[in-house]
Amino acid sequence: MTREKIYKGIAVSQGISISKAYLYTRRQVSISHHEISENETEREIEEFRNSIAISKKELTKIHSLSIERVGEENSKIFQAQLDILNDDIFIDTVIKRIKKDKRTSGFIFHEEISKLANILLSAKDDYMKERYTDIIDVKNRVIRNMKREKLVSKVDESSIIFAHELTPADTILFSKRKVQGYATDTGGTTSHTAIISRALRIPAVVGMKVISKHVLTGDTVIIDGFEGTVVLNPREETIELYKEKLIRYQAEQTRFTKFVDLPCETLDHKKIEITSNIDFIEEVDFIENCGHCGIGLYRTEHLFLSKGEFPSEAEQIEEYTHIANVTFPRTVTIRTFDLGGDKVLPTTIKENNPNLGWRGIRICLDRPDIFKTQLRAILLSSTKKNVKIMYPMISSLDEVRNAKIILDEVKEELDRKGSSYDKDIKVGIMVEVPSAFMLADEFAKEVDFFSVGTNDLTQYLLAVDRGNELISGMYQQFHPAVLRALKWIIEKAHNNKIKVSICGELGSMMLATPLLIGMGIDEISVNPAVFPEIKQIVRGIHYRDARKLVEKVLTFSTEAEIFCEAENFYLKNITLEK
Ligand code: PEP
Ligand code: MG
Asked: What whole-number distance in Å separates Cα of residue 527 and Cα of residue 578?
């Protein structure tokens, strides 16, 4: 009996599959590098031109297949590979060298394309380094075609593919065989295998280091794209456990899809937008489950937290563009780094009072280099005109005005370079500090929208640390002061004809939904897990009743009274469908 073994890697595409493994080993491409005689040069050149033509044909096919399966944006890689083969200067250089140096076409081509690849490998930027493997992929394809070797061998349908490394083309081609998962030794969250498998909605785990040395074609395997694990030769009990997990996952998917196409409005037709809060790029899958709802708050801090340093411009562009594409035609509100406070600070400096310290916009304004890089990346991801910018922890008008000066500088730099971006990009602020709520009228004249961060607003309004267990009972999100502040903010915004959303956790609390609607909120950005419930509540009540409820609760002076009234309203009006 073979023993069950568990391997860990990086989860890059959600889902669970139980199936047979297919181990894909790519043969090493070898080239002959002997000298050739004068009358052999023409044959070598012809062989080279032929293999370029076959490779172009193959890549064009893969490109169209990829567009069909994962869309234009996720297929750009194949166009980039085709561009190399369509580069006449590059092709001419190879041909001239075959004639001059009298060496085989494979040898000269290998040398020339390796020069290109090595430039990328020496780049500081991780994104450029990743493009190195794309060029190596083109190199191997052309050399293989010189030898007329076939690329992908026969795979049984519904297998889980294991490989040391998969090129984007492998990933797309395998998907034709209804593959159930991908697991590779190499790769990270932004590798093309990751991006394509997410787009294909096939579970994938990458960065498994040595998995390809342990799995054999035909082995029974489980791939868990949530946990980033692969179970090799699972025991019966393990298979049963995963089957249950799979059923739960499928049920969860249905729970989301059931409400996707229904309009998000109250019984008396008041429209409310429900969007999602996203903390990690992996959560973007939820967005697809929610019928491509918009993203009301995309917290970018994870880019810093996961690396321990600020991400490069290229990394940010890649991530923001991906999110903008997945969300399109809905919008994504990208919040600039909100580091410090309860989140990690990008220095070793210790502060006595971090929540009142160097955090959010304060760090960005003190470090224009970091701020400008992020703003540039956001602007460059905004070409589809569905991206908004939001600043956290705003406490004074000067901060908004200074941020505007910096944003204008970045826009001018991009204009000089002729880069395209959304010139009318909307800019808003988080209202989460008492001074911002008190000056809401003035702020509303400076920005395009508000998003109320009730997590911090509650903390600062009540002077109760949001993370301190000792006083957690005092952290009251339904506190009358919080609700009155919310009402005030919404009124001031509407007086100035700008929209208001809520992105704090209060927006994800079912008892709060009627209150928010009654106050006139335009958008509720929720934790994706409660999306179906919040949508049902919106659809289950009358706006006129919610307004009456608000009128009443705003006369109360304790949280207990408000809570009790909100609960009665909920029990009377809402029955949730599971
Ligand atoms: C908030 O403060 O309500 C908010 C949404 O921001 P964060 O929780 O990231 O501080
Ligand atoms: Mg906050």
From this structure: 17
Take residue 332 and report the two structure tokens written for it: 């994504």
Per-residue tokens: 136: 């190596």
Secondary structure element (H or E) that encloses residue 517, with its range: helix 513-519
Which tokens in the block code for residue 175? 């998907």
Task: Please list, in sequence order, all residues whose beta carbon lies within 8 angstroms of the beta carbon of residue 491, skipping any fewer than 6 positions away.
Answer: 520
Residues 403 and 306 in one domain: yes
455 lines ligand 1 (CB under 6 A): yes
pLDDT for res 403 = 98
**Which residue CA neighbors atom 4 of ligand 1 most closely?**
453
The CATH number of residue 448's host domain is 3.20.20.60
Q: Are residues 469 and 566 in the same domain?
A: yes
Atom of ligand 1 nearest to the CA of 451: 5
Determine if ligand 1 sits within 6 Å of the CB of residue 185: no
User: What's the CA-to-centroid distance between 502 and ligand 1, angstroms?
Assistant: 10
Regarding whether 411 and 305 lie in a shared domain, the answer is yes
Q: What is the pLDDT of residues 407-435, one digit of tens each?
A: 999 999 999 999 999 999 999 999 999 99
Which of 112, 131, 146 is at the close of a domain?
A: 146
Looking at the structure of the chain, the number of domains it has is: 4
pLDDT band at 64 (very low <50, low <70, confident <90, very high): confident
Is 93 a member of any domain?
yes
The identity of residue 114, as a single letter, is S
Residues marked active site are found at: 192, 503
HEC string of 79-109 equals HHHHHHHCCHHHHHHHHHHHHHHCECHHHHH
Together in a domain, 241 and 263: no
Angle formed by the axes of helices 41-70 and 105-121, nearest 10°: 50
Give the end of a domain, one of 431, 463, 481: 431
> Are residues 265 and 245 located together in one domain of the fold?
no
pTM (two decimals): 0.63
Domain that holds residue 165: 5-26+152-249
- The one-letter amino acid code at 413 reads E
Residue 384 lies in a domain: yes
Pair 235, 91 in one domain = no
Same domain, 79 and 200: no
- At residue 388, does pLDDT exceed 80? yes
For the Cβ of 299 lying below 6 angstroms from any atom of ligand 1, the answer is yes
d(CA 81, CA 59): 8
Count Cβ atoms below 10 Å from residue 401 Cβ, excluding itself. Answer: 10
Q: For residue range 13-59, what is the model confidence (pLDDT) as tens digits?
A: 888 999 999 999 876 667 777 888 888 899 889 888 989 998 998 89
